[in-house]
């Protein structure tokens, strides 16, 4: 099965998986698809009786999940995704639809109904292509479903309760997980196993191939084996035909970028014309080698080149020049930036291939997302963080090997000085301080809304953002909770430099800036203490000192809101957070932690009712209350 042409076409797309299911994330990651995870907030409450067939219910639920995410990203984050994938898995037995059990009794009811019987598992999947026209979200929807039949053995009461007490049933349709302990309940499976686990990968890949590389009828290769029925293979999918009429006619198909491989149309010995994808280096008719192209690894090998191209184009303000005026030729940009024409042209072409710029015969222009995030003046600009990544993180990462060997930060190697205190480095020079604050500000602007709305905080009348830096989160909070007063508490060097980051038109009176060190000075009084990207800077010992101090000034009912990138419990998925944890290794004594890790730390200091929310944005949120 050759997926390279499809994946090649998706590489420059913003693909979003609208699902919190770790199984779906893993299945899609395994095939090399690159995507972001934005769990849907759609409540699965559609009226089941209004659907003629169970699969229609699963498809409609999947569609609503994905549409909710597409709309939210479009409206809230000004980031229209290109493709949103949604899925919903249900179990049906005796014409009843079973979803996830609400409690152990419900799990018992479900599992006893399944005992000794065959049932069906349906997963509905939708692929939504999104675009933005006149600021309106436009969608084209492709959907399908897959059915798998599963038979359970007769389950004794003892086995049933043993299984329920394992906790496994609770987040799974029908109350079991075939991929884990639940496998022991199963006598046979007819159909796609992964469909039961939550995502029918085989059908999905075929659907992607249909959408992105539809075959011409005469090129379909039928392979005949003695015992296996003839099948249409991915090998037959010709990229060259993606512009063909069958492609254009297909519902939901969109114009696609260039693929990562090239097509070699050839005649085989029996005269049948076949199309196959071969690596760029080898176009001499080697028909099946594409399956061996390790595109995921090649992408990772190239990753640093792509990052550096982005950093340099940002540093040279190329996206700013193009935001002011476009299209521009390489020579014009080189003149503006004071750079060589040949080097500038190569950089601009690379940025085009990376999906950051558009190129026409008239010259280069920014993509929408370059205008929003890469130009330095945008409300949600990431320019500050990109420059910080280039000037500060890049040198640190060149010493990652030493950091791994020694298990400690590398500031001395990267910058030639020993760091006694994490922030000493940042605040020694005005330039570095401003750069660091701009970096923190850009991430805070991008994430503040999702953090501020992760929970209903209206019961807290006052909040104190410890290490709140430029006040970006504080300003978002008073927008959402107009009665809230927020104090931003940070080091004197920071507070003295916040003025250039303040919004012009806000009710500034509701945000107060107070300087101090939260480890050594008294904390301002507040109903809610906020620690956003603070705890990840420190080892557990220091966190205990800080939480103990906060706990001492908290009245019962007061809370703590954490905003951090949360690792998954098994530390397997979520590459952004896992890479961020390496980032903490090279420069701090801290690390990223999971929601359970933070819960454990908070509970030791008298905080309970810990709620964890994965926002789908760069920072997740954890809320707890003092008892
Ligand atoms: C039957 C079965 C289901 N499941 C899981 C797959 C799905 O994650 C879950 C069904 O619930 P869904 O509502 O389909 O998905 P979800 O709530 O996990 O995630 P989201 O709504 O954010 O997309 O049950 C298994 O993991 N193993 C199994 O054997």
UniProtKB/TrEMBL annotation:
<comment type="subunit">
    <text>Homodimer.</text>
</comment>
<dbReference type="GO" id="GO:0008171">
    <property type="term" value="F:O-methyltransferase activity"/>
</dbReference>
<keyword id="KW-0808">Transferase</keyword>
<dbReference type="InterPro" id="IPR036390">
    <property type="entry name" value="WH_DNA-bd_sf"/>
</dbReference>
<dbReference type="InterPro" id="IPR036388">
    <property type="entry name" value="WH-like_DNA-bd_sf"/>
</dbReference>
<keyword id="KW-0949">S-adenosyl-L-methionine</keyword>
<feature type="domain" description="O-methyltransferase C-terminal">
    <location>
        <begin position="397"/>
        <end position="608"/>
    </location>
</feature>
<dbReference type="InterPro" id="IPR016461">
    <property type="entry name" value="COMT-like"/>
</dbReference>
<dbReference type="InterPro" id="IPR003697">
    <property type="entry name" value="Maf-like"/>
</dbReference>
<protein>
    <submittedName>
        <fullName>Acetylserotonin O-methyltransferase like</fullName>
    </submittedName>
</protein>
<dbReference type="InterPro" id="IPR012967">
    <property type="entry name" value="COMT_dimerisation"/>
</dbReference>
<keyword id="KW-0378">Hydrolase</keyword>
<dbReference type="GO" id="GO:0047429">
    <property type="term" value="F:nucleoside triphosphate diphosphatase activity"/>
</dbReference>
<feature type="domain" description="O-methyltransferase dimerisation">
    <location>
        <begin position="298"/>
        <end position="376"/>
    </location>
</feature>
<dbReference type="Pfam" id="PF02545">
    <property type="entry name" value="Maf"/>
</dbReference>
<dbReference type="Pfam" id="PF08100">
    <property type="entry name" value="Dimerisation"/>
</dbReference>
<dbReference type="InterPro" id="IPR029063">
    <property type="entry name" value="SAM-dependent_MTases_sf"/>
</dbReference>
<dbReference type="GO" id="GO:0032259">
    <property type="term" value="P:methylation"/>
</dbReference>
<dbReference type="Pfam" id="PF00891">
    <property type="entry name" value="Methyltransf_2"/>
</dbReference>
<dbReference type="InterPro" id="IPR001077">
    <property type="entry name" value="COMT_C"/>
</dbReference>
<dbReference type="GO" id="GO:0046983">
    <property type="term" value="F:protein dimerization activity"/>
</dbReference>
<keyword id="KW-0489">Methyltransferase</keyword>
<dbReference type="InterPro" id="IPR029001">
    <property type="entry name" value="ITPase-like_fam"/>
</dbReference>
